[in-house]
Amino acid sequence: MAGRFAPRDARRAPVPHQAAATPVPAAQTRVWTPPGPLDLRLVLGPLRRGPADPTFRMSADGSVRRASRTPAGPGTLHVVAREGRIEAAAWGPGASWLLDQLPTLLGEGDDPAAFTPRHRLLAVTQHRRPGLRLLRTGLVLESLIPSVLEQKVTTDEAYRAWRLLVRRYGEPAPGPQEYGLYVMPDARTWSLIPSWEWHRAGVDSKRSATILRTVRVARRMEEAAAMELPDALTRLQAIPGIGSWTAAETLQRSNGAADAVTVGDFHLPGIVGHALAGNRNADDEEMLALLTPYEGQRHRATRLILLSGETPPRRAPRLQPRDIARL
Q1: 109-162 pLDDT, tens per residue?
Q2: Which of 36, 137, 149, 293 has the fewest CB atoms inside 10 Å of its own CB, making it the most exposed?
């Protein structure tokens, strides 16, 4: 009788994946020599959603491990820089795809020389960070969904939601089990997560509804990875709940979009205003005006500003997280 009165979507909720104790197949490998200096931490760092991201690990030796859901299936990639070369190993159905895309991921198509600094701060930072390149994953949903989770909440809240949902509804990543990585859920599994599990993860109905609308058209979203920036922005923002902030944060990662400036951020206008004009109270309009000399490279300009360490001292109290699971 209890099952008869269970919530309707309980009967179709996805079953969390369990790790299987199976032998680890041999890794596929590749060695690639980048065209110039490359700092793995700087390049791949934007993919990490918090220190406990179940899809991403950085090691003390500078190597990076990440799990992805590729068009060929789940895959795990381990990359390390040695003597000017990148050595990579990959496991799972998506291994070949990940290795084929390795140069693209690490910014082979990026052109740092296209950026001409017009402020001393940016010139100095660019000189000190020669290994910065803009990554390009070629995968939209894996950046779009966590970006939606980050809307209008603290980073700690968003990271917690991503961690809980991926661990519960994703699957253990291929490769060595000691990596402890998970592949994010596929589109169908996201669509079947019951409402109370979103609530338990601290995700309000507005953000969960946006994700549900997104995964229903997952294929159309993934097509944006091959589009020019204006068309890609239009494609993503056709989904109610995805605005300019979320679209830019996604395309910076999936498309390596050097001009995808983040508008609508709580902190960024003040940081840019402080760094370039000494105005910590700048709004989006002033930020865009200050970035006008970097048209076509505005995202790179903001990355360099953030890496410079020239951020205004905090005056406002920190935004307090809300525990909606207790509401």
Answers
A1: 999 999 999 999 999 999 999 999 999 999 999 999 999 999 999 999 999 999
A2: 36
What is the C-alpha to C-alpha distance for residues 220 and 138, in angstroms, rounded to an integer?
Answer: 13
Domains of the chain, start order: 28-111 (3.30.310.20), 141-224 (1.10.340.30)
DSSP class per residue in 246-281: HHHHHHHHHS--TT----S-SSHHHHHHHHHHS-TT
Could you give the CA distance from residue 68 to residue 163 in angstroms, rounded to a whole number? 15
Q: For the chain, what's the residue count?
A: 327
User: How many other C-beta atoms are found inside a 10 Å radius of the C-beta of residue 85?
Assistant: 13
pLDDT in tens, 242-255: 999 999 999 999 99
Cβ contact 92:73 at 8 Å: yes
pLDDT tens readout for residues 33-92:
999 999 999 999 999 999 999 999 999 888 999 999 999 999 999 999 999 999 999 999
Residue for token digits 């020669």?
130
Please name the helix (run of DSSP H) or strand (run of DSSP E) that holds residue 274, with its range, or none.
Answer: helix 268-277
Closest by CA position to 121, among listed 322, 325, 303: 303
* SS3 of residue 67 by DSSP: strand
DSSP per residue over 132-170, as a string? ------S-SHHHHHHHHHTTTS-HHHHHHHHHHHHHHHS
* CA–CA separation, 122 and 288 (whole Å): 16
Show Cβ contacts of residue 171 under 8 Å, excluding neighbours closer than 6 positions: 17, 74, 182, 183, 185
Residue type at position 77: L
Decide if 122 contacts 305 (C-beta within 8 A).
yes
In degrees, rounded to 5, the angle at the alpha carbon of residue 314 between the alpha carbons of residues 253 and 274 is 65
Round to whole Å and give the CA distance between 43 and 242.
25
